[in-house]
Amino acid sequence: MKIEIGSNKRIDDTWKLVGAVEPSDYICIWGDDLLPFKDNTIDHIYASHVLEHIYWYKTDFALSEVFRVLKPKGIFEVHVPDFKIILKVYNTKKMIDGWRRYNEETNDYMKWVNGRLFAYNREGHGDFYSHKCCFDEEYLEKCLRIAGFKNIKHEAEVRGADHGIVDLGMTCIK
Predict the structure, then answer these.
(1) Do the Cβ atoms of 101 and 174 come closer than 8 Å?
(2) Of 7, 109, 113, 117, which has the maximum CB count within 10 A?
(3) Which CATH number characterizes residue 27's domain?
């Protein structure tokens, strides 16, 4: 079985969705709840730009849950915003891509930084969509190693929404 955590669009018919709201096939809040699967039962898990929506102090638990449900040799792909890139824009005061959400008229680098760092709430969802932690390459790898993952590669295929220059993707094996 292949699972995607946190998306409302299926990669294709071979993937099942896990999320906090419908149309997910399995409803749970990653980082708060146990994933709704038995130990060693999932072949592949994909999580694109969802780990940063979990409070920083729950990262270890969230990743340990992925490790728990993956089969031996199971694959985990994860994507998060790269804090190092966000800091580069802050330090240079120059936006390095065309992303201008809520910033179309002013092109203000600090609005870009804030948008990329904190994300945006959606009506009726409180701060569910806000970012609650940040990662750079070294920290994400460290978190994955603590959870037990091996063969960590600092690359991963973008299967859904492409977050462009700020995307930090890693693939690893249980």
Answers:
(1) no
(2) 7
(3) 3.40.50.150
Q: Are 35 and 4 in contact (CB under 8 A)?
A: no
Number of domains in the chain: 1
On whether residue 169 sits in a domain, the answer given is yes
User: Is 27:37 a contact under the CB 8 Å cutoff?
Assistant: no
76 within domain boundaries: yes
Residue 110 included in any domain? no
Q: Give the number of other CB atoms < 10 A from CB of residue 172.
A: 25
Residue 92 has pLDDT above 70, yes or no: yes
Give the rounded distance of the alpha carbon of 174 from its chain centre.
Answer: 18
29 burial (CB, 10 Å; 0-12 / 13-18 / 19+) is: middle
pLDDT digits (tens, 9 = 90+) for 37-62: 999 999 999 999 999 999 999 999 99
Closest CA to 99 of 86, 87, 91, 170: 86
